[in-house]
Structures are given as structure tokens and as C-alpha cells.
Task: inverse folding
């Protein structure tokens, strides 16, 4: 059955010849009734989705990386219209977790032969996220990554280089107050990481995938609090052999409130970042997102 499909793309994709060519090919592969709408980062994605549905879209495809996919998904919560993902980013964690190929042409064929499935997504202070949200050194890594990307290009090797540069600048752990399940505790940590992607956790050998399956968060609280310990932890993550209890503590819950010692803190969510005022409240979305799962998944889908 052929559906009327709206393909939502980051406007900058039209300025990147590789992405523009991939989108053109994939639009032809998605079927005979496909139209494209561009989105400017920072503008109202909800208005773009409204336009897509007003033009009769029965399915929506987000073309881009995890940040673009997150923006589209957030605007589609509770709408009941199936969302497909065309991976064009650097890491494409959400698409890979769905079992989609990182090759856009093959992913387009998988989207055509896919079934709708409802999921809940993570929320932090009203912001939706699909893979993860975090406080501490990871948001700092993302900030450094953008500087590296602007100079050398958006390559995974450059992303890894930004990790080392950030670790070398690390000074001291954060002081956090955590409230969950009727309990309050204080921790000192370089990183609080809220995981919502079983694929991403398993990719790095981190425990907690079962919590994702149970509609909960896998909160990773880093134990490393010196530069040397951070480098050692990163090395074990690269080998997919982090040590639970030594490198990190795992906390699983469906709601967590986090107070920081500073008035504002840098928050990362699916590769995007924002300096926000606390406290930070993590919870599961009430509305559900309808996603398209391929019948012929690639790799290890979760």
C-alpha cells in the first residue's frame, strides 16, 4: 500500500551536496506520493508538522541526524501519525537502534516495508529526547565537538578527538542532589547520563537495557572524578568493557529530580545542548510516539 509521505529535512541539508543527493534519491525510493518540507533549526517544528498533516501526510519521515529526528519526534508526540527515520547524521543512534541501515537508500526501502509501533520517550524540563540527556562532562564534550567540527568537518574521528580535549580541561566534579522514589541523596560526579536507548547502552557495554524495555531510565552516574580516571573510563568504554561499580553507578527509575550547586547548568539532549536553570526533572512522556519499525532490521535492533 502506498502512503502519502511528508519528508522533513533540516534546511542545511539542501546546502550539503551529499545529503541533498541522498534525499532526492530516497524520496523517489519512498514511493510515488512524497513531498518535502524544510525546517530551520530553532524554528517551530510543530508548525512544520501541522503543514505536513494539512497537506494530507499519512506518514512522516525525518531526514537527518539524531538532533533533527528528536525535533520531529517531539512535535509528533500524541499525534498518532507514524514516523520513519532517514539517517543522515554522524552517529544516528536512534535509527541504528530501530534496526535501520545507515545507508540512506537502504533505509528508505526499509521504511517502505515497516510497521507502526508506539513508544514513550524521555522528557527533561519539558524537552523530549530519544537517546539520552546529560549534565556534566558530556555536554562539555558536545560544546567542544562543535568547535572541532567547524574546523575539521563532521567526522566520527573528530568527535572522539573532542573527548580528549575536554578531559584535559576537566577541573572538578559536580555536586548534585538527587530525588527519586521517595529518597534524597547527594553525589559528586563528572557526569549524570540519562539513557533511553538500549542500543546505545549495549554498544558501549553499559548495563541498564532492561530498564529501557520497562519504560524506565537507565541513569549512569560516573565514578571517575579525576582526569586520569576519566581517560581510563573512556578507554574501557571504547573496548566496551566499562566496570559497573568502579566506572559508574547504575540507577533505574521512571522519574528523577536533579538539583545542581549552580543556578544554571549545561544540559545535553540527543546531541543538542542548552544552558538551563534547575532543578532538572526527568520523567517519561505521557503522550506516545508512533514510529515505523522495519520488518527486516539491520544489525542489532533494540
Result:
Amino acid at each position: 500500500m502506498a502512503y502519502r509521505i511528508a519528508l522533513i529535512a533540516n534546511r542545511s541539508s539542501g546546502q550539503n551536496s551529499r545529503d541533498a543527493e541522498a534525499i532526492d534519491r530516497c524520496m523517489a525510493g519512498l514511493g510515488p506520493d512524497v513531498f518535502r518540507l524544510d525546517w530551520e533549526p530553532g524554528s517551530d517544528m510543530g508548525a512544520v508538522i501541522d503543514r505536513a498533516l494539512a497537506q494530507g501526510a499519512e506518514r512522516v519521515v525525518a531526514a537527518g541526524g539524531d538532533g533533527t529526528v528528536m525535533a520531529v519526534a517531539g512535535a509528533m508526540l500524541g499525534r498518532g501519525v507514524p514516523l520513519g527515520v532517514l539517517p543522515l547524521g554522524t552517529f544516528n543512534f536512534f535509527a541504528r537502534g530501530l534496526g535501520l541501515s545507515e545507508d540512506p537508500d537502504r533505509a528508505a526501502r526499509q521504511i517502505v516495508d515497516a510497521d507502526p509501533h508506539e513508544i514513550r520517550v524521555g522528557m527533561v524540563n519539558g524537552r523530549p529526547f530519544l537517546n539520552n540527556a546529560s549534565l556534566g562532562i558530556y555536554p562539555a564534550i558536545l560544546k567542544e565537538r562543535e568547535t572541532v567540527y567547524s574546523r575539521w568537518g563532521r567526522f566520527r574521528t573528530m568527535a572522539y578527538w573532542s573527548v580528549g580535549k575536554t578531559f584535559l580541561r576537566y577541573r572538578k566534579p559536580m555536586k548534585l542532589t538527587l530525588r527519586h522514589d521517595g529518597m534524597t541523596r547527594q553525589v559528586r560526579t563528572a557526569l549524570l547520563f540519562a539513557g533511553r536507548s538500549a542500543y546505545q547502552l549495549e554498544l558501549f557495554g553499559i548495563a541498564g537495557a532492561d530498564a529501557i524495555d520497562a519504560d524506565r531510565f537507565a541513569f549512569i552516574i560516573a565514578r571517575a572524578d579525576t582526569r586520569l580516571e576519566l581517560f581510563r573510563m573512556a578507554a574501557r568504554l571504547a573496548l566496551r568493557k566499562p566496570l559497573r561499580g568502579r566506572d559508574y553507578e547504575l540507577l533505574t527509575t521512571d522519574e528523577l529530580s536533579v538539583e545542581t550547586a549552580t543556578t544554571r547548568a549545561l544540559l545535553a539532549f540527543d546531541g543538542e545542548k542548552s544552558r538551563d536553570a534547575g532543578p532538572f526533572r526527568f520523567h517519561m512522556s505521557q503522550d506516545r510516539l508512533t514510529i515505523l519499525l522495519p520488518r527486516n532490521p539491520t544489525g542489532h535492533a533494540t
User: Anything to note?
Assistant: The mean pLDDT is 92. The chain has two domains: 5-121+287-294, 132-269.
